[in-house]
Design goal:
Elements: H1 7-10, H2 16-29, E1 35-36, H3 48-58, H4 73-87, E2 97-100, H5 102-114, E3 120-125, H6 129-137, E4 141-146, H7 147-150, H8 154-164, E5 171-174, H9 187-200, E6 203-207, E7 233-238, H10 239-242, E8 251-255, H11 257-270, H12 276-288, H13 293-314, E9 327-331, H14 341-352, E10 354-355, E11 357-358, E12 369-373, H15 378-394, H16 397-404
Parallel strand pairs: 1-10, 3-4, 3-5, 5-6, 6-7
Antiparallel strand pairs: 2-8, 7-8, 9-12, 11-12
Bound molecules: pyridoxal-5'-phosphate.
Length: about 400
């Protein structure tokens, strides 16, 4: 039988990173030791106190039942306390906090809860793919606003874009510190955004995945620190990066009560909640480790950042040190830029045995760049630099284009 997939699925383009993944697998099967700086997949384990608590709870038969879809109440209370301790923000745990199965799940279902055909959302690009595709899957339209081209004038560019649009977009998606560009903002930026959103009645969704992966004394603000933000905004946080719990699948959406209610309703139909031992592990992390563990993980990424940026600069590849996230957003060296980011990434994978993400996989705005994730140890990072140097020294863009632009 010919299986006809839905029009929803058909609206999704082929997954560009899939090509890189397939090549990586092929090379690994051939016995190559690929240094994988592709996906933002933390390599460090969760804190040992969190693991110990989860193991203890897993032995309790009661913990094996379906959990609460919106999160167990002790966990929601702990999230509210955490926001108060860390950001001075008051949240009602019953109405303004919900647990999500990682922020990716939360973002996806929130798009379904808020948007449908005829609606649109503003998304800065290049973008973390789910910020675009969750909206497409909800049947709504995406209006992109270039982060790359507008540079320091992003906010003016955003407001001007809004003014010329009709019908007006319903939602604005933000993500600062930003994946993939690593751009950061200050609280003044969020003040302007909230002021704008209140005037124009637009919902703001801030993805705060890299809240704690910050360097050199930079502190990332929460959008909810802005007066009246809760009238229009929600924020997603995740334990994936701050507590290196990516595989555990636990995050939160906090802020506007009506938006949380809508997400809670849709999740009530779709899921039965996160496995209880994981939620209890989350309580320990937020209660006992909130001001220690994230800093320790950030320190590891900062050291790796320094090793990689300094090493690449030394071989003639100029890159700025980012202030946050677990990535470098690296402009392709001038003499290779014509090869394009996909071909250049394939070249690095095959000939330097280093996997990175091509900028194009974050949208057309990302072309000309690579995203390099700091998810291997410093020894391996140094090895990667040596291998990259060797590959770059031998070849030019014409060679890369001819061999890899297929
Ligand atoms: C910007 C951003 N948002 C969300 C996520 C997904 O996080 P989670 O593991 O909480 O689903 C990531 C993961 O890399 C990310 O970079």
């Amino acid at each position: 039988m010919n299986i006809e997939v839905s029009s929803r699925i058909k609206r999704l383009p082929p997954y560009i990173f899939g090509e890189i993944n397939a090549l990586k697998l092929k090379l690994r099967r051939e016995g190559k030791d690929i240094i994988d700086l592709g996906m933002g997949n933390p390599d460090k384990p969760a804190p040992k106190e969190v693991m110990a608590k989860a193991i203890e709870v897993i032995k309790d038969p009661k913990a094996h039942r379906y959990s609460a879809s919106k999160g167990i109440s002790h966990l929601l209370k702990e999230v509210a306390k955490f926001y108060n301790k860390k950001y001075g923000v008051e949240l009602n745990p019953d109405t303004e906090v919900i647990a999500t199965i990682g922020s990716k799940e939360g973002l996806s279902h929130l798009a379904l809860a808020l948007l449908g055909p005829g609606d649109s959302a503003l998304v800065p690009t290049p973008a973390f793919p789910i910020h675009i595709w969750s909206i497409i899957l909800a049947g709504a339209n995406v209006i992109t606003v270039s982060l790359e081209k507008s540079g320091e004038n992003f906010i003016d560019h955003l407001f001007k874009t809004y003014e010329i649009l009709w019908p007006k977009p319903k939602v604005l998606i933000l993500n600062f510190p930003h994946n993939p560009t690593t751009k950061v903002v200050d609280i003044e930026f969020f003040r302007l955004i909230i002021d704008f959103a209140l005037k124009k009645e637009i919902i703001v969704i801030q993805d705060f995945a890299y809240a704690d992966i910050v360097f050199d004394g930079y502190k990332a603000p929460s959008i909810l620190q802005v007066h009246r933000a809760k009238e229009v905004a929600v924020e997603f946080i995740t334990m994936s990066k701050s507590f290196s719990m990516a595989g555990w699948r636990i995050g939160f959406c906090v802020g506007n009560e009506e938006i949380i209610k809508a997400l809670s309703k849709i999740k009530g139909y779709y899921d039965y909640g996160i496995f209880t031992p994981i939620q209890v592990g989350g309580i320990i992390a937020l209660r006992e480790l909130w001001d220690k563990a994230p800093d320790e993980y950030a320190r590891i990424y900062q050291d790796r950042r320094d090793t990689l940026v300094e090493g690449l600069n030394k071989i003639g590849w100029e890159i700025q040190k980012p202030k946050a996230t677990m990535f470098l957003w690296a402009k392709i060296p001038e003499n290779f830029i014509k090869a394009g980011s996909l071909a250049f990434s394939k070249f690095l994978l095959e000939e330097a045995e280093v996997c990175v993400s091509p900028g194009i996989s974050f949208g057309e705005e990302g072309e000309g760049y690579l995203r390099i994730a700091l998810v291997e140890n410093e020894k391996r990072i140094k090895q990667a630099i040596r291998q990259i140097k060797k590959a770059l020294d031998k070849k030019d863009y014409k060679y890369v284009l001819e061999k890899y632009n297929k």
